[in-house]
Amino acid sequence: YDVLPPLVDASKPAGEWNTLEITLDGPHYKAVLNGVIVQDVNFDEVEELKYRLRNGFIVISDHGGYAAFRNIRLKPL
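-> structure tokens emitted (77 positions)
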């Protein structure tokens, strides 16, 4: 979000669970939040993203406040 803002704000109010599906297929990144596409971008077409790593660790973080995660699933394409 520091490089590209979301297309829309599809987040639910505080206290409600959000559903996020992220698809990474080579340089193509797509994020669907609560059934709404919020990012659909090719990393190779954005100067600040084209040289970022495309493999490695998956990190789940917060921004200093309370955050909870559940039902995390990973599957290969």
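The two ends are 24 Å apart (CA to CA).
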